[in-house]
Design goal:
With 369 residues, this protein is mainly β. It has 3 helices and 25 strands. The strands form 7 sheets. Strands 2-3-4-6 form a 4-stranded antiparallel sheet, with no helix packed on it. It has a 4-stranded antiparallel sheet with strand order 7-8-9-10, with no helix packed on it. Strand 15 and strand 16 form a beta hairpin. The radius of gyration is 21 Å and the shape is globular.
């Protein structure tokens, strides 16, 4: 360790290498934290979570009871055992509470003063964090399954919305109206995700077994319809392309935006090159997916080798993104896990035998000295 720090100080090592290596060690040692708890507010299942990217301190949760809760993750008491308290909540007695299950919550990417929520009550709501009042409400004709704001865009304020209908709707927070409709899917839209690399690139997943990449600036919209066979069976007829042999109900870009992960009810997870749509053919084995709606999974950020965390029954399966190896199963829940989020600042380390493939040079002989 000392040798590594010395090399970094003299400019011989990448300053981020230590951080990436330590983040990797922490992921590989993850287990249930017995000294930390989260205050229970929801009366039913929790469908969605989001940690704000500005400070990484506040977490939103949305439940099947229609309630939204805002938690403070910071340990202000400095005690070894503590409970993350709810700062506030939008409960059943709130005049603007969602009438049915909340399916997605998301912080505004550039400011903690605003967040969004969507629900089975056919609405997307924009909230003022300070007053807990709605700043805007978008109403739809169909049940809303998913929505997403671009984590990087400074050029637009579009919210992509997936509903029970086959059309992807883009809501403009600036104008307060639905500005675009993307047509091409044949069944309900179960998941949507903006690229973390490009402002105008959007990925959508549908019950029609298809995943589409869109450039929302283009009149035609759709750039690529992903094909699990890489064109060998469809003979380049794009309308025949399918990403999975079942409903596609989960999407997640890698943190650098170069790849896209998808999950389907065919119990498969696939990794795609997001620039050309190629199926990389990484084999993750059977990835159990019994969700009847969207499956919310997540990827790591800042590790030497990135990982993907997928709800798997009452556990969370952890895979390496680029090799497909299942590293571990995170256990601790008693019932089905519906969603998960990754926050590198709150990882907890445990002493465990690490997979030698992930050990870095600095963590062996240098550490002993």
């Amino acid at each position: 360790m000392l040798g590594f720090l010395s090399a970094r100080q003299t400019g011989l090592e990448d300053p981020l290498r230590l951080r990436r290596a330590e983040s990797t060690r922490r992921v590989l040692g993850l287990e249930l934290n017995k000294d930390r708890d989260v205050e229970r507010i929801h009366g039913g299942g929790i469908n969605t979570l989001d940690i704000e990217p500005v400070e990484g301190r506040y977490m939103l949760s949305g439940g099947s009871d229609g309630v939204i809760v805002l938690y403070d993750l910071e340990n202000s008491s400095r005690q070894s055992y503590y409970t993350c308290k709810a700062v506030c909540s939008i409960g059943r007695d709130h005049p603007d509470v969602h009438r049915y299950s909340v399916e997605t919550v998301q912080w505004y990417p550039h400011d903690t003063g605003m967040f969004t929520s969507s629900s089975f009550d056919k609405t997307l709501k924009v909230w003022d964090t300070n007053t807990l009042q709605t700043a805007d409400v978008f109403n739809f004709e169909e049940t809303v399954y998913s929505h997403h704001m671009s984590p990087v865009s400074t050029k637009h304020c579009l919210v992509a919305v997936g509903t029970r209908g086959p059309k992807v709707q883009l809501c403009d927070l600036k104008s307060g109206s639905c500005s675009h409709i993307l047509q091409g899917h044949r069944q309900e839209i179960l998941a949507v995700s903006w690229s973390p690399r490009y402002d105008y690139i959007l990925a959508t997943a549908s019950a029609d077994s298809r995943v589409k990449l869109w450039d929302v600036r283009r009149a035609s919209g759709c750039l690529i319809t992903l094909d699990q066979h890489n064109g060998k069976k469809s003979q380049a007829v794009e309308s025949a392309n399918t990403a999975h042999n079942g409903k596609v109900n989960g999407l997640c870009f890698t943190s650098d935006g170069l790849h896209l992960l998808t999950v389907g009810t065919d119990n498969r997870m696939r990794l795609w090159n997001s620039s050309n749509g190629e199926n990389t053919l990484v084999n993750y084995g059977k990835v159990c997916n019994n969700s009847k709606k969207g499956l919310k999974f997540t990827v790591s950020c800042g590790c030497s080798s990135e990982f993907v965390f997928v709800p798997y029954g009452s556990t969370i399966a952890v895979y390496t993104v680029y090799s497909g190896e299942q590293i571990t199963m995170l256990k601790g829940h008693y019932k089905t896990v519906d969603c998960c989020v990754f926050q590198s600042n709150f990882q907890t380390t445990t002493k465990s035998q690490l997979n030698p493939a992930f050990e870095d040079a600095w963590s062996s002989s240098d550490e002993e000295g």
